[in-house]
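Bumping with the actual sequence this time:
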Amino acid sequence: MTFPVTLLDLAGCIALLLWGTHMVQKGVQRAFGPRLRSMLAGALKTRFHAFIAGIGVTAMLQSSTATGLMVAGFTAAGMVELVPALAVMLGANVGTTLVVQLLSFNVAALSPALILVGVVMFRRAANAMPRDLAQVLIGLGLMLMSLHRLIDLITPYEDAPDLRMLMGAVSTTPLVAMLVAAVMTWIAHSSVAVVLLAMSLAVKGVVPPEAAFALVVGANVGSALNPVLEA
């Protein structure tokens, strides 16, 4: 397989990862959106409860950006003070870490089963709730499948000069890596997918740890852009 074709496959895997993340977010928001907002609003009375709520909501939505948008809305409306809002965002970052850690395990074998169950549920569902949950299962399956395929694609090219040269610009310039990750996170509305991508590249040795750290920092910066811009 030629290197340009591999780059196309790589871009397709990244797109599939982003789309799977999007499906999970939308499915959870449609199924539990009002309940999540009510739970988050009710938990903002104490710092500890706000922190736990941030973890829980972010773990379900797989997006600290979505959690940040909710909190920004509450803060702008005067419903919550700054300190509990910051506690929620701290919990949101912890929740993102937990999601990434969970998806980093070798559970790619579950992806066909998740997609199959999701499709069957979606086709047989008589109302909106099962359809939304089916979308979540399909999205998770696509995420796991794309991560597995991503690693398979990278493995034969770990020492390829073209790939090393391509990633060299990112690796040698942390600011570029941060900007790339921030833009990707801002577009995807989720730092989970970008952190998973950075982790996959680092595991296969395509980027050094320093560049991976820069990508993760950029993902966190990108996740903060949407709440700031839409507040």
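The tokens above came from a reply further down the thread. The longest helix spans residues 3-43.
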